[in-house]
Amino acid sequence: MFAAVIGITSFNANAQGLEIGGGLGTMYATGDVTRGMELGELGLAGQLFIRYNLSNVVSVRGTGLIGGISGDDETNPIDPFAEKRDFSFFRTNYEASAVIEYNFLDYKERNSIINFSPYFFIGGGLSATSNKNSEEDYRRIQPVIPFGVGVKYRLTKQWNLEFEFGARKTFYDGLDKLSGVPNPNKLQPRYGNELDNDWYYFAGISVSYTFYSIPCPFNSY
After folding, report:
1. Does any domain span residue 15?
2. Residues 71, 93: contact at Cβ < 8 Å?
3. What is the pLDDT along the chain (221 residues), one digit of tens a residue?
4. What's the CATH code of the domain at 170?
5. Are strands 88-103 and 58-72 parallel, antiparallel or unpaired?
6. Long-range contact set of residues 139-142: C-beta below 8 Å, sequence gap at least 24
7. Residue 116, Cβ density class (10 Å: 0-12 exposed, 13-18 middle, ≥19 buried)
8. Looking at the 3D structure of the chain, how many domains does it have?
9. For strand 199-211 and strand 58-72, is the pairing parallel, antiparallel, or unpaired?
10. Which residues contact 137 (CB under 8 A, 6 or more apart)?
11. By residue range, what is the domain housing residue 92?
């Protein structure tokens, strides 16, 4: 996927080059078990990415992301159905994605007094999960739509600092290992709402390094 992102761009001497970076943050999921963000269910996550700046305001980025997601019905004590179901899960989530970024400020301009910019991103990707603590097989590769916002800071000419929050729209209900079909092998069927697809989210901080293009000298003689 990284090669595809680079292949759709053309290198030129005026662009501010290729960037590579990585960062750490947290990942969590919402679905039948977890309806909102619970601090105790935030998992550690990390990412590596490669970015090419088409201009000072538009970039394309390919990202590899990995993180832990979990949920527990005990976090919903006011829900009698969740209390009776008494279900919990933990799994590792993997993602490969390609997105387009738009910087709202031209913070990369050499003479600019601004060294930061908020940005928005949207794209597409594939997600896969481990199958820990589950009798069912949800280890399927699924399409996702990543989108979100962030802020980029230009620390130096080469080094950048970024804060980002992004959501991932999925198209299935098995991320938390619960689907709309009861399991007849269990004494108490554990299932959720098959019409309500799951989501997962990533928030983190990253550092990137920019490789500037160096124009070739021109000798007229």
Report:
1. no
2. no
3. 444 433 433 334 344 689 999 999 999 988 777 666 667 778 999 999 999 999 889 999 999 999 998 877 777 656 666 666 667 778 899 999 999 999 999 888 777 788 999 999 999 999 998 866 554 555 578 999 999 999 999 998 889 999 999 999 998 877 776 665 554 555 444 555 555 788 999 999 999 999 876 655 555 44
4. 2.40.160.20
5. antiparallel
6. 140/172, 140/174, 142/170, 142/171, 142/172
7. middle
8. 1
9. unpaired
10. 131
11. 2-9+20-211
42 close to 27: Cβ distance less than 8 angstroms: yes
Angle at 77 between CA 72 and CA 81, to 5 degrees: 80
Whats the size of the chain, residue-wise? 221
The tokens describing 15, both together, are 């662009």
Query: Residue 7: which H helix or E strand, with range?
Result: helix 2-7
